[in-house]
Amino acid sequence: MERIRALNRYQKGVLVVMAAMVLVFTVLYPVVTSRTGFAYKDTVLVQGQEEGNTVYTGKVYGIPSRFTVTPDKTVVFQYGKETYGPYAVREDPTAAPKGVDTSGHMTGIELRRGDEVIFRGGVVEQGENRWIYNEDGSIESAVGIDIGISVGGTGDVIDPMGPSVSTIVNLVAGPKLTHPGGWWGWAAGMFCCVVTVVSMLFANELFRIQLSVYIRNVEDAEPTDWEMVRRYATWTVFPILALLAFIMGLQ
Predict the structure, then answer these.
(1) 64 and 163 housed in the same domain
(2) pLDDT for 184-213, tens place per residue?
(3) Is the peptide bond before 86 cis (omega within 30 degrees of 0)?
(4) Listed range (30-44, 54-68, 96-110) with the worst mean pLDDT
(5) 183 near 33, Cβ under 8 Å?
(6) For 2-105, where are the E strands, in sequence order?
(7) What does the alpha-carbon distance between residue 85 and residue 77 come to, in Å, rounded to a whole number?
(8) What is the distance between the alpha carbons of residues 226 and 45, in angstroms, rounded to a whole number?
(9) Contacts (Cβ under 8 Å, ≥6 apart) of 116
(10) What SS3 state is found at 86?
């Protein structure tokens, strides 16, 4: 306590700010990381239930987005004011490609948007991976690789925000859920805070330990103006790094 009372206003202010950061983010991290959902584009859409449907909601590139998956394997995607679908996935053994090595373990499917057939092929489950083949035997997508669905029924225009065949099939089959954020951010932020506190409370001791490698009688050494600038730079930069780490870890 004596060391804390001996600090100046700036140092005490930094300690208060860091204590508030640690408290806020220690509460936020369990809340955020406990929300499971579907990884899509640059975010995680949180899973929920509404009127018997499974929904995945969140923001994609800052725009409110929502997948709705019905029990009869129909998918609707809402991106801002745009609505994609409904897409319907139906099993069809005749759609499975012939002559593919994994054809014996393949489920034939047909994907429709309304009355329009936009995909025919097969799905192969291999552990946690899901491989999707076109009807001609070529690979449509595999291991999370997305290929966009053409819009307008002409096959000429690809809407970058339209869900891919892989996305729709994964949603219908049951996607592997994940959660936003990672505790690495909390750990990195805490590390920066600890470094700041230790360098602040034991500044002179650390200064003399460093000098003891080069000179004798370090007890008589006094920090120069440049040393004080270095100390204040540390006490400023590391709290900023801590804040950035805390925030990035929640993404």
Answers:
(1) yes
(2) 999 999 999 999 999 999 988 888 888 777
(3) yes
(4) 96-110
(5) yes
(6) 37-40, 43-50, 53-60, 63-69, 74-79, 82-91
(7) 6
(8) 50
(9) 153
(10) strand
Same domain, 54 and 167: yes
Q: What are phi and psi of 138, to 5 degrees?
A: -75, 155
Last residue of a domain, one of 150, 173, 196: 173
Mean confidence (pLDDT) of the chain: 81
Query: Is residue 164 a contact partner of residue 148, using CB atoms and an 8 Å limit?
Result: yes
Enter the tokens of residue 75: 């998918």
Domain enclosing residue 204, as ranges: 2-32+180-249
Residue 131 β-bridge partners: 124, 142
Which residues is 132 bridged to in the sheet?
123, 141
Tokens of 173: 């089959």
pLDDT tens sequence across 54-82: 999 888 888 898 999 998 888 999 988 88
Peptide bond into 30 cis (omega under 30): no
Place of tokens 């709290």: 239
